[in-house]
Amino acid sequence: MEIAVLNISGKETGRKVLLADDIYSVEPNDHAIYLDVKQYLANQRQGTHKAKERAEVARTTKKLKKQKGTGGARAGSMKSPVFIGGGRVFGPRPRSYGFKLNKKLKALARKSALTYKAKDNSILVVEAFGFETPSTKGYLNVLDGLSLLNKKTLLVLPENNANVYLSSRNLPKAKVTTVNELSTYDLLHADNLLISEQSVEKIEALLK
User: Fold this and answer.
1) String of b and e for 156-194 (b: at least 16 CB within 10 Å)?
2) Structural domain spans, the chain
3) 112-116: which pairs have CB atoms within 8 A and are 24 or more residues apart?
4) Model pLDDT for residues 3-49, shown as the tens digit of each residue
5) Span 126-153, pLDDT tens digits
6) What's the pLDDT score for residue 113?
7) How confident is the model over 153-190, as pLDDT tens digits?
8) Region entry Disordered: which residue ranges (predicted)?
9) Do residues 126 and 196 make contact, with C-beta atoms less than 8 angstroms apart?
10) Contact (CB, 8 A) for 13 and 127
């Protein structure tokens, strides 16, 4: 499919780019999307939770009561999980929630997400732009020109651009990423996808 290249004012530049059908018009695989998003969210978890078990709590080692004649169960340590202040049984320990996925599956998930965006006509290709210094107002003017001021947007750049990134950082509905950092989660979370003109070929090279 062909799509017109827009400038930051939202007007057509007269140029068009071809979005490859094997990336933007595939048969979407919802399960691949689910697994990729699940992995993304799992990798965001710190996994630093920790509870003390009976070997780790600081309590007296004195025997509570005599072994027999009390009518109750035997008790030899206040560290037992049975008592208040004792250790926890099988408590959480620090661990990683991450898991592995095949590269082909992750690529399929991103292609599926891009296909959904293309079907919804939520993809805009914009010509390269930048700022001499970080300017949130300047980035807002770009979004305003593209009629995306109050929508969640994801801008995909071919490489890191510090000024553009810093200009968007304070905006809750705007996110800037690069082709190499493009994730299925970010694609689905955004209402509209802005692709820099130079990023189109890099996306195709990455996912083919």
Assistant:
1) bbbeebeebbbbbeebeebbbbbbeebbbbbbbebebbb
2) 2-45+101-207, 47-96
3) 112/26, 112/28, 112/29, 112/30, 112/32, 112/33, 112/184, 113/33, 113/184, 113/187, 113/188, 114/23, 114/24, 114/187, 114/193, 114/203, 115/23, 115/24, 115/25, 115/26, 115/28, 116/28, 116/188
4) 999 999 989 999 999 999 999 999 999 999 999 999 999 999 999 99
5) 999 999 999 999 999 999 999 999 899 9
6) 97
7) 999 999 999 999 999 999 999 999 999 999 999 999 99
8) 46-76
9) yes
10) yes
Tokens 């030899």 — which residue?
76
* CA separation, residue 73 to residues 59, 70, 84, 87, 113 (Å): 20, 8, 16, 18, 60
The pTM of the full predicted model, rounded to 2 decimals, is 0.85
> What average pLDDT does the structure give for the chain?
94
User: Going by C-beta distance under 8 Å and a sequence separation of 6 or more, which residues neighbour residue 168?
Assistant: 136, 139, 155, 174, 175, 176
The predicted pLDDT at position 64 comes to 87
Residue 9, C-beta contacts closer than 8 angstroms, at least 6 positions apart:
145
Q: Which two tokens stand for residue 134?
A: 């970080």
Report how far Cα 181 is from the mean position of its chain's Cα atoms: 10
Report the C-alpha gap between 200 and 130 in whole angstroms.
18
Token reading at 29 = 């695989």
For the record, the structure tokens of 58 come out as: 């600081």
2-45+101-207 is classed CATH 3.40.1370.10: yes
- For residue 135, give both structure tokens: 């300017």
